[in-house]
Amino acid sequence: MHSSLPVRTNLLTIAWLALLFLALALVVALAPVHLQNIATDWQITAAAPALPDAVSYSVFINLMLALRYLALAVFLGASGLIVLHQPRNRAGWLAAFAFLFMPMVFNLTGYTESWPYPPPWDQLLGILYGLAQLLGIAGLVLLIYIFPDGSFRPRRSAWFAGGLLVLLLGFSIAGRFIPDGGGFTWAGIMILLLLLVTGGLVSQVARYRRAPAMERRSSRGFVIALFLLLAGTVASILLSVDNQPLPTLVFLFLDLLLFCLLPLSVAYALLRYGLWTGEPTPSRRAVSYYLTGWATLLVVGLTALFLAGGQGSGAAAQPVGELAWDKPPIPLIVDTDLSMDDHLALLFLLQHPGVDIRAITVSGTGEVHCEPGVRNMLDILEMLGQPEIPVACGREAPLSGEHAFPDSWREGADTLYGVELPAGTRQPYPGSAVELIQSVLAEAPEPVTLLTLGPLTNPGEALEAHPELATEIERILIMGGAVGAPGNVGPSTPEIDNQVAEWNIYADPHSANLVLRSGAPVALVPLDATNFVPVSMAFLNRLEGNRTTPAAQLAYDLMAARRDVVLSGTASFWDILTAAILLDGSLASYKIGGIVVEEAESPLSGQTLLDENGPRASYAVWADRMRFEDHFLQALQR
């Protein structure tokens, strides 16, 4: 009945120990990310409104963390139990190896779109984590098809499973390398996984019906667990597709239980019936301890959820921090190129009580063209019932050079990515952006802050024509540059040979130097900091559940319209982080140095360089993702 192993048991044990070390290392490396991000996990935030009023959001989060790590312990415990009993069958060793990495397939240890570690560790961990997930998927699939005797039955099921595994690998690779293919590949992966599990269940049922009585007894629990896992997964997808709070909350707990049934059923068969060893446990105590231990802790956890709260009444429905601002509003000019991220930053600022926006100037050298950009901005201001803020545009060519954003990007910004606005009646400022900047600075009774979210053409031209304006500026806060981080021009536009520049600086390097050398206090929020606040589906889902104002609804519509960008994992909250830092500098940490921009046309054009002889400026090097996202959401809901 049992097939012999072609390699020695002690070598397999050594291999298992090595993979156990890898799994534990990945769990430890993921832990800080998991602990930080679980509060914004889309399932957690979607389920929060269904919690009882007496249960605080923090209690709920801590419980889910505890249960996930408990489930991890169940998988690792089952794996160790199999190795301890030295199975005599390849299916037993496969189960021991597969259980090490299945928790990562089910995201029990958390997940991350960007590792918060310096190069090359971030890339190395990303590769190892991807490999671990592939091993977990392959191990799960093979175990489903060859349990319990180590062979495919019927044999043609091997071709079915192998073909689907190859397709699954192809979709996984496509998701990383095909632009804008995230949603398609994710759907393909889910369909293939369901087909694989369904085929495995059919194979197991056919095997079970023909197996001897002893084998049926030992595999019965596994077959039942497999059926429940498949049924639960399908039900979870169907009933939670709209992120309804109660179904999502139910399946958060149910999925954990269903995931753990596989290792629990194998452990039971091993201890009770001597599966793969021929040595059943005479006493049922070990079986009872193993099976009831996790169930007891689950019951205790659920009891804690509903009885230990009491300090968080209503918190579950609003899982974001409080927005407080007790200082006088900051007088502000916003210079923007009105990409999606710029619009989100402006919605944040328009809703925030801490700013007094005196003017909005549009950079025609950025993503949007002047006429549609100004019209969109005026219509948004009118739709949101904002005061009559003057809006003007500047020139559409840089002060020097011919750098330009891709036409496809500009077309999207011009049309607001397909989001329709009610036609407004407000009219633009009659002069240019430079004239508007000069007018506001001259008329303001106090220094005004200049926030730039696009290329620096408008402020560069204004400060070149009127150097005295620098004394009227409180400070210039720039979203731009890449000081110690790679640029984003070449990676986002392969036809441009430039790996060091950031787009806002690259579009007009000469204007950037004019601003840096103007004498006004300058601070930059470069890619060094914005890389810590990636745009994610978790945040989009969280925003979807917190659309209580027209501004929040518009922010969601804009992000949903660019879902392809969100799924790609290549975008960050560049401009929104800069706007948030304007109001709360503690969201980031900083360095100070001399900064210059490379103007010469070359693959280094637009590079932001540290130069001890250059003009001094501060630049952000890190950002607090969780607090930033809370600030953003809370402002939108105001």
Overview of the structural elements:
There is one protein chain. By secondary structure, this protein is an alpha/beta fold. The protein has two domains: 305 residues, no CATH class; 307 residues, Ribonucleoside hydrolase-like (Inosine-uridine Nucleoside N-ribohydrolase, Chain A). 56% of the residues lie in helices and 9% in strands. It has a nine-stranded mixed sheet with strand order 3-2-1-4-5-6-9-7-8, sandwiched between helices. It is elongated. The N terminus is likely disordered.
Number of helices: 24
Q: What percent of the residues sit in helical stretches (DSSP H or I)?
A: 55-70%
Largest sheet: 9 strands, mixed
CATH class category name of the largest domain: Alpha Beta
Task: Output the strand order for the largest sheet.
Answer: 3-2-1-4-5-6-9-7-8
Question: Uncertain regions: pLDDT < 50 for 5+ in a row?
Answer: 1-7, 179-183, 305-325
Over the alpha carbons, how many angstroms does the gyration radius reach? 29 Å
